[in-house]
Amino acid sequence: MSPSVKTYRFEQAIAGRAYVIEVQAVSATRWRAQIARLPGMPTSLMPFYGETPEEAARELTKWLSLVSAAPANQAPRPTPAGR
Hints:
Blueprint: E1 7-14, E2 17-27, E3 30-35, E4 48-50, H1 53-69
Antiparallel strand pairs: 1-2, 2-3, 3-4
């Protein structure tokens, strides 16, 4: 029988969208946060880490806030050489 793994769940509203973030221990001082895998919901492609469950969830929340604020329909424009 495998030992049970404690999962912390944080609910966050970011840019008008609800997210559930799950955090699990990787080691005694390292925690991994990712978007909960729910039917019909996208998941994060990369996990975020912290020394506590709260810190790991905060790192993922910050990233989600940043990408939600960027205009989705605008590609970055290259800067001409020499400027």
